[in-house]
What does this fold into?
Amino acid sequence: MSADAFQVYRGLSLLTAKPDALTLAKAPHHLIGTTPLHEEMNAEKYRRAASRAVEEIHSRGKLAIVVGGSGLYIKALTHGLAPLPESDPKLRERLNAMSLDELHTQLAELYPEAAQKIDLKNRRRVVRAVEICLRTGKPVSGVVAGVGDSGQPGSTIPATGVFVFRDREELYARINQRVEAMFENGVIEEVRAAGKVSSTASQMIGFREIHELLDGKMSISQCIAAIQQATRRYAKRQLTWFRRQTNFSPLNLSLLTHNEAMILLRMLSERRKVSAVRAKG
It folds into this structure.
């Protein structure tokens, strides 16, 4: 089952690096390509859908393996989400009228810790974080700061996992190669034909850059370089997040052959590890 915030969307398979048809045919996959591009997605919606999928998998006597790099989605599934206030239309309208710099300043005043952790280029998340602080009068936690809409507390799912990663030099090289392969396989036309997408879907790495390419604001080489850099930065944040999860056993694929890695993962699965996670790339 995927815990990728963007592979859950239907379409843009190249941009989101979805598994190919041959891989998908080898075993049942869940929450890949299940949400239309025009729909909003957030951690609470994911938690509900993933919880149903886990129950269905377990009802068949099978082990649910959660794979993906969105730490917030995994946290939502395993620990639930704190209750959040509903969005206030008048307050949201006022915040939407503010510049991103003004929002950054207000968030730093309300909750400096969140201002350091949140993606300050993601306007939607910054607006929601400020809104929560203003409506509750309390500092928003790092998890809550990443939630796009109102979340509700959910039951927790006991889970341990495997943090699958590679040495940074190798990881970055694989990222660079994957982005180049995306362009060779037609990602520009894929994005051009995507049609209307939601504000959350538009946050996919590469979506904005390719639209700037289509608008003549950058060259193909500049676009490729920008996506490579954005993906490397995202991978770095993933590495930091997953290393902090003490119940995840680290597994460095750079030190293992493919067969050795499969043997170790199979051993961990037999011990009924519920979730496996990986860094992007």
About this structure: The beta strands are 161-165, 248-252, 275-278. The two ends are 18 Å apart (CA to CA). Residues 89-145 form a domain with the Histone, subunit A fold (CATH 1.10.20). The chain has two domains: 21-81+154-278, 89-145.
